Amino acid sequence: MKKGMLLAAILFCGIIARAQSVLVKFTTNHGNFTVMLYDDTPKHRDMFLAEIKKGTYTNALFNRVIKEFVIQGGVLDDTTLLYEKQHPELGAPRFPAEIKPNRFHKRGALGAGRDNNPEKASFFNQIYFVVGKKYTGTQLAELEQKKGITIPADHKQAYKTIGGIPRLDGDYTVFGEITHGYDVVEKISQLRTDKNDLPLSPVTFTARVLKKK
Questions:
Q1: Which residues is 95 bridged to in the sheet?
Q2: Where in the sequence is the domain holding 57, given as residue range(s)?
Q3: Tally of domains in the chain
């Protein structure tokens, strides 16, 4: 990327970051990073803030770590589904999806986990950060054909230059992104794990609100 284009991209990202109303700091035993929550996914933003206030993300675990894919924290799918099976009277509460075409799975994106429900509704207490990998134009074209979609040009540029997970777009709610400290997430993604993708040494984190209008 030419220097002028790179500078313009950096300035544009800075404008976006200032436009958002909430910043959250993640303190982990491998370092810290900062996340901004998108204001155009307000329900997920507020749901996440409510879970922080409840203590869901205090001394929580990144319990699913997959190189070149995601690091996931909160309550695991199996734990949630087992609890719901044991308590059928509670139903299966899910949070309505807020899937926006301008919010995509680029490197550092924050998404809400979910099970395979047809509404693509989110769990209340599971998040993930995108690590992903870089894609070639050919690979993106093949994905477009396979899914019957058209990937926007700026998304393609991001997937080619910084990477991500384009196949998840349109299926999961993305409601924030890392603004500082992505190297911490990258480091966590490289940790050794067991056959269930659980880090061999616990990776703990606490989320704390830094800025809220």
A1: 122
A2: 22-212
A3: 1
CA–CA separation, 57 vs 50, rounded Å? 10
Residue 124 is classified by DSSP as: S
Residue 7 lies in a domain: no
Q: What is the pLDDT of residues 69-118, one digit of tens each?
A: 999 999 876 776 665 667 777 766 789 999 999 999 999 999 999 999 99
> Do the bridges between strand 60-65 and strand 109-112 make them parallel or antiparallel, or are there none, so unpaired?
unpaired
Rg (CA), the chain: 17
List the structure tokens of 51: 């879970």
Query: Does residue 59 lie in a domain region?
Result: yes
Q: Within a domain: residue 14?
A: no
Beta strands in the chain (DSSP E): 22-28, 31-37, 60-65, 70-74, 109-112, 126-130, 174-180, 204-212
Q: Residue 86's CB: how many other CB atoms inside 10 A?
A: 8
Alpha carbon distances (Å) from 64 to 69, 70, 111: 10, 8, 14
